[in-house]
Amino acid sequence: MESEVVPQQRRASDAHLELTSEERYRLLAENSSDIVYQTNGLIIQWISPSVTQWLGWQPYELIGAPALSLLAPDQDLSWVTGNRDQLLAGHSVVQEMELIHRDGTKRWFEGRARPMMREGDAVGGFMVGLHDVHEQRLSRRALLLSEKRYRSAMQHAGVGMALINPKFEIVNVNEALCEFVGRTEDELIGGSWALVTNGDDLEVESELLDRVVHGDLDTFRRVQRFTDASGNMLYGDVTVAAARDDDGSVVLLTKQVVDITEQTTSRRRLADLAARDPLTSLSNRSTVMQAIERSLDPSHLDVGRVGVLFADLDNFKLINETLGHIAGDELLKAVADRFTTYLGRDAIVGRFGGDEFVIVAPQPADESLLTYYAHLMTQSLKDDFMIAGRRVVMTTSVGAALSRPGSTATGLLQDADVALSEAKRDGKARWRIFDLSMADAAMARLETEGALRDALDNDELTVFYQPVHQLADNSRVGFEALVRWNHPQHGLLTPGSFLAVAEESSLITVIGEKVLARVCRDIANTPNMTEHVAVNVSAIELAHAEWIDRTIGTINDSGIDPTRLIIELTETAVMSTRRDLRADLTRLRDLGIGLHVDDFGTGYSSISLLRDLPVSGVKLDQSFVSSLSEPDSPSYALAEGLASLAFAIGLIGVAEGIETPVQSAFLRGMGWTHGQGYLFGKPSELDEWISVSA
Ligand code: C2E
Ligand code: MG
Known about the structure:
Layout: H1 9-12, H2 20-30, E1 35-40, E2 43-47, H3 50-55, H4 59-62, H5 79-88, E3 93-100, E4 106-118, E5 121-132, H6 134-156, E6 160-164, E7 170-173, H7 175-181, H8 185-188, H9 202-213, E8 219-227, E9 233-244, E10 250-259, H10 261-275, H11 285-296, E11 307-313, H12 316-323, H13 325-343, E12 348-353, E13 356-360, H14 367-380, E14 385-387, E15 390-392, E16 396-402, H15 409-425, E17 431-433, H16 436-457, E18 461-470, E19 476-487, E20 491-493, H17 499-504, H18 507-525, E21 532-536, H19 539-543, H20 547-558, E22 565-570, H21 571-576, H22 582-590, E23 594-600, H23 606-612, E24 617-620, H24 622-626, H25 634-648, E25 652-655, H26 661-670, E26 674-676, H27 686-689
Parallel strand pairs: 16-17, 19-21, 21-22, 22-23, 23-24, 24-25, 25-26
Antiparallel strand pairs: 1-2, 1-5, 3-4, 4-5, 6-7, 6-10, 8-9, 9-10, 11-13, 11-16, 12-13, 14-15, 18-19, 18-26, 19-20
The protein binds ligand C2E and magnesium ion.
Ligand C2E binds near residues 536, 538 and 676.
């Protein structure tokens, strides 16, 4: 700028250009924050003092300088000529331009120029107002840039993206989203978001979007199910963010969709596999346990007591044994279907493995509901099953339990299991609901089991002998060995008080071995004894494949004559054993060991048993004997019939529980050859009967 420029604006102004209106204009301009200047031709003739504040120049430094010298270099100035022509033609122009500060920095202004007119003619000068637009310009540019970048990012993003408006209409989508849902941009844009949303998710989806629109939510992320153009279900991990205007109302919603269909479906498949029993598709153990735990959770609303039912199919193992495992599986599936049909609408039906099923009753449960469900379960099996082309009858025993304050899932199932054991103990095809007395009984059984273990260690078990007589002449021909427990506190205990516990805990195997070894030893050590000795064997012992070898081993080791021994098995024991016992029992028979069917008449397939197994005798159950007094009673007829049956197939017939000479006479008259009972002698130590040589 020229240094000799006169610093007085008014002095520099041309008198002939001074107009009243311009003076007024200048007065305004001097007090305005915008820069205002006036030119003569292209030379600044006057400039407002605000220029100092904006551009650092003193007005006198600029007056006389070309207006163009205010412009920052390196900008596109192609507009200059055009604008000047416009002004010369008498038109106003508006132009954005970058001005230079005295310190060399640049700043954007919007210039509004109008030609100076006198009497309708342009006089070759302009009046220019400069308004600072620097910040707007920068942010507009940034916005433009980011919009451009956003559009490009959206278009090329690997994840699906959609912009939707508050009416849930799709405003824009990218390629990835089109590809994901198998639709074109044209099909989607303008359409509703519901078009791609899976029907089952629509309600939740629109509820969430509503919440965003109403400002309750700003952003959310969820797994959403989509439907593609072919109707397939897809899974997307969706992040939603809202773009709001200044007053907070939603302008657009951005949805980012990551395709997780593959992971989700395989994960769901895996989760489903992990939650279900593969054979029956019922809930498996862990799912049922979790469901019970959830229902018991004290942090949930108190919705009443939780009820579970534990079911175990009666004699299911017989099906596996007789029809094979494939048929067994088929039956389990059929039972699962029946349970589901009868109970599955409100209850959870699960399988714990084997033939064990668990039902979680709907909450709240009470005793009458459990009774109803137990009844439904037994009812559901009422009709026969057709399995492997055979008609199969199946029943179930059920134990049920209700939660108590503080119950755990495991505890509740244990209660149901205790009730189930009670139901089985009562006879099968029954149900029982747990009560605390059962728990006491279970506890007592546990205590007995512990004490019995100690008894075995301390040799507290002993064997009593009860004589068996020939009815024709009352001569003693044998003994039955009966186990006794010499309890340190309770004295002498009969098997009734501990045998069931021994069988449940498998201690019976050890007891059986001890009794047999003791009997063999007694025979070996008592040369005066010439009678047979019968030893009882329980079903549990028979179930073990090793039983036969161990038994024969014990007998051989003792060196006794095997023909002195008789093995007593109950019909029920033989029938409930999974193994085919024929070969084992034949080995015993081949050694000359007698085989008697105990409690004869109380089991359920006496006749076929006698035909199929190498049986040498039968023992009429004492229940027949005790009710003999009525010659017209069915017991009487049965006892008589069974005697002729035994006689007809050449078996020894032993009647048990003979207490009176009258009974003895009756039985003898019917054809029973042998008898046992208090009439002939109560079970006692061997030396009560025979002098045992030292
Ligand atoms: P069981 O084999 O039917 O034995 C006969 C039971 O009837 C014995 O009961 C005997 O004491 C009882 N008894 C005998 N005569 C009479 C009578 O005239 N009147 C009455 N009311 N009862 C009579 P115990 O000794 O209590 O044995 C019960 C059951 O325990 C036996 O029934 C047998 O099944 C089982 N048992 C006994 N010892 C053994 C053993 O060593 N092993 C196995 N597995 N079971 C055994
Ligand atoms: Mg017996």
